Amino acid sequence: MHPRRLAAAAIVCSMLWLLAGWPTDAQEPQPAAALYNTAKQKILQGKPVVGGTVSSPDTNIYCAMATAGFDYLWIEMQHSPLTYSDVAKMIWSCRNTPATPMIRVPDATEGDIQKATDIGALGIIVPTVATVEKAQAAVKWSKYPPVGRRSQGAGQYGALYGANYRDTANDNMLVVVMIETPIGVKIADQIAAVPGVDVVFAASTDLGNFSGFHQGEPGYESLVTRIKDETLRSGRKLGGPLAWKDRQGFTFFQGPGETALIKAGAQATVK
Predict the structure, then answer these.
(1) Which DSSP letter does residue 32 get?
(2) Distances in Å between the alpha carbon of 190 and those of 173, 175, 195?
(3) What is the pTM of this model?
(4) What is the spatial distance between Cα 238 and Cα 213, in angstroms, rounded to a whole number?
(5) Which of 55, 92, 163, 205 has its CA 20 to 30 A from that of 256?
(6) R_g of the chain computed on alpha carbons
(7) 255 vs 153, which has greater pLDDT?
(8) Does residue 148 sit in helix, strand or coil?
(9) Contact yes or no for 255/75 (Cβ under 8 A)
(10) Which secondary-structure segment (H or E) carries 259?
(11) Separation between Cα atoms, residue 82 and residue 92, nearest integer Å
(12) CB 37, CB 172: distance < 8 Å
């Protein structure tokens, strides 16, 4: 081969080799989704999280609790007259505050969870989970495809969390399922193993209500122990009332409601 042609061929080969090793846009690693759910951040770091319980539609009360130091707010829609319109105003009134808004929905239905997520909840708490199917429904309606079946529609979530909310929502959503009955306790291992469940919550009051046992009795404590053991074995976080903060294994806590907090604050002020 002519020396000039040989040199040219060598240059072309070198360029092709360099181009082959140069990352294209398609090859570049994509940045991780922004994790703006600060309660979930702490959970993933293995830190305990504490939430205050809100049942009042008063936005002043909501804002006071949202800035009081709680990691999240447990917005109570199972045992309160709160409407989704009420809660939408509450979440909007104190956007960008430290406490992550989480809603205990009445049930694991598409309608309840869809409304809760659309108005800005970054956590869904589902009560009385006693079947695998209900735990699966909690995940299915909380998450967008391909993980779940949440549909995309109107809501204030975009104004709260940014234009790329659709791409970051699944990573930021916290799914909490509550085991409250002996039936649920029997299959605690299966409930805790459902993909997408973040926290399994041992419901202290209703475990007694449905079992007939009182806290401290062997029958009651055996129910709590089974929930704990199966939850931790599955790699999920374990939740319970704040009064259980010293129990081993518990890291997700529901704190008192606004009436108890106002009473405690008033008593402290008077003293």
Answers:
(1) P
(2) 21, 16, 10
(3) 0.87
(4) 21
(5) 92
(6) 24
(7) 255
(8) coil
(9) no
(10) helix 258-270
(11) 15
(12) yes
| Residue 269 parent element (H or E) | helix 258-270
Q: Return the C-alpha torsion angle 58, 63, 66, 67, nearest 10.
A: -150
* 184, amino acid identity: G
Q: Tell me if residue 55 falls in helix, strand or coil.
A: coil
- Choose among 79, 98, 125, 154: nearest CA to 254: 125
**What are the CA-CA distances from residue 37 to residues 43, 116, 150, 173, 207 (Å)?**
10, 15, 19, 8, 29
Give the active site residues: 79
Instruction: Read off the amino acid at residue 180.
Output: E
Task: Give the pair of three-digit tokens for residue 80.
Answer: 């309160």
Count of all residues that appear for the chain in the document: 271
Place of tokens 């045992």: 79
Both tokens assigned to 55 = 């049942």
Residue type, 259: T
Cβ atoms 207, 216 nearer than 8 A = no
Between CA 124 and CA 14 the distance in angstroms is 56
Contact present, 121 and 128 (Cβ < 8 Å): no
Tens-place pLDDT, residues 220-233: 999 999 999 999 99
Which residue has tokens 């202290």?
Answer: 204
User: What one-letter code names the amino acid at 26?
Assistant: A
| 169-196 b/e (C-beta count within 10 Å ≥ 16 → b) | bbebbbbbbbbbbbebbebbeebbbbeb
